[in-house]
Amino acid sequence: MQLNAPPGTPAVPLVSLKGVEKSFPGVKALSDVSIDLYAGEVHMIMGENGAGKSTLMKILCGAYTADAGEFHYKGVPEQMRGPRDARRFGISVIFQEFSLVPHLDVAQNIFLGREPKGRLPGQIDRACLYREAQRYLDMLGCDIGARTQVHKLRVAEQQMVEIAKALSQDARVLVLDEPTSALSDRETEQLFGVIRTLQTEGVAMAYISHRMGEVFELGDRITVLRDGKYIGTKLPFETNPDDIVRMMVGRSVDMSYARNFCETPGETIIEMKNVSAPNGITDINLVVRRGEIVGLSGLVGSGRTEVARTLFGADPISSGEILYGGKPFRGTPTMARDGGIALIPESRKTQGLALIRSVRDNMVVSGLGRMFPKGWFQPSRATAAATSLIERLRVATPSPFRRVGNLSGGNQQKVVIGKWLNAGSQLFIFDEPTRGIDVGAKSEIFALIDGLVKQGNAVLMISSELPEIINVCDRAYVMKDKRVVGELSRGQLTQENVMRLAVHHG
Amino acid sequence: MADVSLAHRATSRFEIRAPGIWIILAALLLVFATTTPRFLSAANLTNIGLQSSILLLLALPMTLVILTEGLDLSMGALMALVSMIVGLTSAAGYPVPVSIAAGLMVGLAGGILNGLLVAKLDMPPFVATLGTLGMAQGLAVVLTDGQSVVDLADAIPAIFSVAVFGVPLPIWLSVAAYSVTHYILYHTQFGVSIFAIGGNRDAWKLSGGNVDRCLIGVYAFAGVMVGIAGFLFTSRMSAGHPTASLGMEFDAMAAVALGGTSFEKGNGWLFGTVLGVLAIGVLRNGLNLLGFPSSVQVVSVGVLVLIALFIDGLRSKP
Amino acid sequence: MTETSIGKTVPGARLSAASLLEKIGGLDLIIRLFVVAALCLALTFATPKFLTEGNVLNVLRQTALLFLIASGLTLVILTGGIDLSVGANLGLSGCLAALALKATGSVALTFLVAISAGAAGGLANGLLVTAMRVPPFIATYGMLWVLLGLTYWVMGGDSVHGFPPNFRILGSGYVLGIPVPVYLMFVFLAIGGLFLSRTRWGQEVYAIGANPEAARLSGIPVQSRLILVYTLSGAMAGLAALVFLARVNSAEGDIGETLTLPAITAVLIGGTSLFGGIGTVGGTFIGALILTLVINGMNLLSVHTNWQPFVTGVIVIIAVLVDRLSHQK
Fold this sequence. Notes:
- The complex is a heterotrimer of chains A (506), B (318) and C (329).
- Chain A is of the alpha/beta class.
- Chain A contains 18 helices and 20 strands.
- In chain A, the strands form four sheets. In chain A, strands 6-7-8-3-9-10 form a six-stranded mixed β-sheet, sandwiched between helices. In chain A, strands 16-17-18-13-19-20 form a six-stranded mixed β-sheet, sandwiched between helices. In chain A, strands 2-1-4-5 form a four-stranded antiparallel β-sheet, with helices on one face.
- Chain B has 318 residues and is mostly helical.
- Helices cover 76% and strands 1% of the residues of chain B.
- A two-stranded antiparallel sheet of chain B has the order 1-2.
- In chain B, a hairpin with a 2-residue loop joins strand 1 and strand 2.
- Chain C is built from 15 helices and four strands.
- Chain C has a two-stranded antiparallel ribbon. A two-stranded antiparallel ribbon of chain C has the order 2-3.
- In chain C, a hairpin with a 2-residue loop joins strand 2 and strand 3.
- Chains in contact: A-B, A-C, B-C.
């Protein structure tokens, strides 16, 4: 299947996955995907959010088991049943969230759980520990002391420690998941130096990236996935960034939702002027008007959630200003709620709902002040309000007293929306509203969102699913590296335009 | 390459970890040295050392417990029970080593019970140890109906004041306890697991580490140290006392907090605990010399901890 | 999966059954009432001294004192926090109130002193937990010793006794043959119940305990609600101190020392989850009743009072285990 072997590499790939299939309930994550990794190559894996990159890598490192397909090591079919097998074949992953212990030093982290034993039972041979750790750090050519506590290191250095840890476990295959996303330019160059060193050592690297620049600078081969399918593998000199973007976009659209777009938006409801915040977002300018659904697109980690939290007052701002209804707004979530701003967060279970409480209790929680201005809570009125919301939003629950934790994802999302309807909100900020929701319920959620703007409310919608942005939004902003890098009007909204802005190109 | 690692060794060894405790300790010494003439006398300094030795025996394991994001509220009560067992066995005519062994066994049993409750039954440490606090306190009082046991073997009170090479035995013991704890924390895999469980429990599990065994070990170690402290306490009081040691875990906790160990993320420093113990010892001794009652001392320790927590809070904020 | 997302009509019978159970406070409450009944029955058979007017009133009076402390604590535990300083808070506010009463003889001033001293201690806890972000069990445990130290400082080892009769009614008086503290208990049972189930602040307390992050992102002012709850817990300790003083007719530095563990135990066996978000003041009343019955039974059966801390310690551990098993999956 993969015709392009990198020039000058051994004939047999170090590891390969062949014809991998993987399904999750309701989703086909991978179908018939194959990939080869040769010793000493940097193999770039590209694709938009949800294309199946992470699933493929998790299968490679044994975190998931494939439903079908083969794993080959040096051309020989082998069993891959779990992380233990992966370790046996020398496969290691450097995740974006590090598995380091902050108040242990570098050497202790590198050998965590595998400390060289001293003479006494339980004792650590500290001389050996630091000598060996220093050896791996030197191998990487990075200037980190083995005795430095990890929490004092910068992110880039922590990443080096992770890589050293992998090497100390005899890693021959390294999976790097967007390793440069939190690094400065100088740190990125250092990382590239390390990666080139590893190449000469014969380590095979699968490198997930969204940055066109580094893909072409570093990659020996580029493989593109889309919709859980293998699209193609290219050598850098025979392709160009536009080609790659074209390969990445064009997902089959599994949503049939269509709406009448807003021709004449109303007054401006909220405006961000040159807003920067300690959470990382820099110089954000955006406007949302009544009657329109504004998309906030970009790749995961580009700063979209941070914008949402800043608008809602959950994160403070350091400079710039937010105008809400024409007046400066700088406040807390409580003030945002009272002013009519709603946040439907990405993680329903940890941020949106109290799972042990009932549907009713969750639905009235934000509207308590509005419904009961004197402070007296009337259960019957709360129940009535919840019952009418349950009907209006078509929440499938046997009773308003059912624990929210027992509902399906789509119904839980409706409860979160209901919570804000009951609070009398006018600006709804949706962060990944369809995450973990099945297809039928997705259309319902979009119908609800459409209904909101028809009544003169405004919606800012974050989504990683390009088809959702394209089919639902009147306008969209694209973010990259914590900045807004472009605004696309209805006519300009195509998957290719969004993706080009989002991946550092054009 | 050798130069590089030496340079790093130098920075990590001589860097000042928690400047606050040094300042507090220096300030306390200065204040009491200038206000009370007797403070700097050899006899008084030895006295501070003796008083601090028992506290250190509790504060060292408390540091380990807090590093795992736990807490042991049962120390004072368990110490009282140990003291009663030591007293009763000695009063019953058993030789001193038997009393010591019995005291250590009681401490160990209490510690293992705490460990099992926290590790195996997954109870929040403060309630688990609050429960064992009640149990130990109750048993200590039940044994003699609340009376202290005074007819001990003569050797027991003697142990507290015996001097080896001119230094009282309890101070030797606390030096030994510090060395052992330091070794455990910084030179064994058990020590690594303590930091890892507080700092990143998932990472420890991913590396194949056992969380339960570490937690039980930490609480059991605390139990043994409480056993030794309970014996020394009995020796100092010349009596098995069912209530006098209650609340000593507060001073231990305060010493740990003062010494720059925070209650989150496995961020701690064992030697800081020694400094914390000394600060509390100096504070209580100095206030005592100035004629303040122990109630004022407790409040001052609390205020000192508030200051330390405040500094900790300032440091942990970005 | 797709099926469940579409609104379906709901069987009416299940709805009413569920809401009925919801209304009476769930199965947990019924089980706890059975425990109370079983304890009473067992004690009636075990000793003739149990079912006498004097003993029953005694049980009720002790339950009342325990409940008054535990009710405020219930609010704190509902938010997922803990207040280990309630006993010490009771001790300090009680001693200050006793000194004020001795000095002025004014009952009104005594009330003011006790409740505001208690509230101040609670407020300090609240500020430590919110503004300084100290974990509640550490903040309130530190506060325990600070308050205890202050109490001994204030009292200087002395005790104050002999209060005017018009004050002592609060603890030792009877109205219609029933002790005054019992009326007080039912008043605060009603107030606490109303606060939790019939005010929006009560609803917010539950929301915070169930998921603090979601509560914050729902616009609930979490910090100020936490401060309120710790302050209320302190104020209730102050009120309980008054009842205690009026009952025992004297104040010493150590009056509060033995009360914290039973108060926490009462809350936990009353079905309030240590992990927050689940529980009622009514449950705490039953919890206080169960614990008082156990201790009363031990007294009647001539088990020495020295066993009380041991038994309470065992019960608190069992209560947490039951909580873990029933609320945490």
